[in-house]
């Protein structure tokens, strides 16, 4: 969420990290593969105009995620 700039976070970022950390733990337990959890621009690259940002800012959507997994 809020991947348009590093260091910019939604007000519920601690909750978002908690949910994504649980997802990471599940994927790791099932596959043995690990990945980095964090805000898009902090972990990967800045990407503005995402529908995930729009969904959180304009409606009753508490969480949105961008997940990029290995191929």
First-last Cα distance = 22 Å
- Integer average pLDDT: 85
- How much helix is in the residues? 40-55%
Oligomeric state of the chains?
single chain
Description of the structure:
It is a single chain. With 71 residues, the chain is mostly helical. The protein is built from 3 helices and no strands. It has helices at 13-31, 40-43, 51-58. The radius of gyration is 12 Å and the shape is globular. The mean pLDDT is 85.
List the helices and strands and how they pair.
Elements: H1 13-31, H2 40-43, H3 51-58
Structure summarized in a few sentences:
By secondary structure, the protein is mainly alpha-helical.
Which features does this protein show?
mainly alpha; single chain; globular
């Amino acid at each position: 969420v809020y991947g348009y700039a590093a260091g910019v976070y939604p007000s519920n970022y601690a909750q978002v990290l908690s949910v994504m950390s649980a997802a990471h733990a599940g994927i790791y337990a099932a596959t043995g593969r690990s990945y980095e959890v964090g805000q898009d621009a902090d972990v990967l690259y800045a990407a503005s105009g995402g529908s995930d940002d729009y969904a959180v800012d304009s409606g009753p959507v508490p969480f949105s995620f961008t997940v990029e997994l290995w191929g």
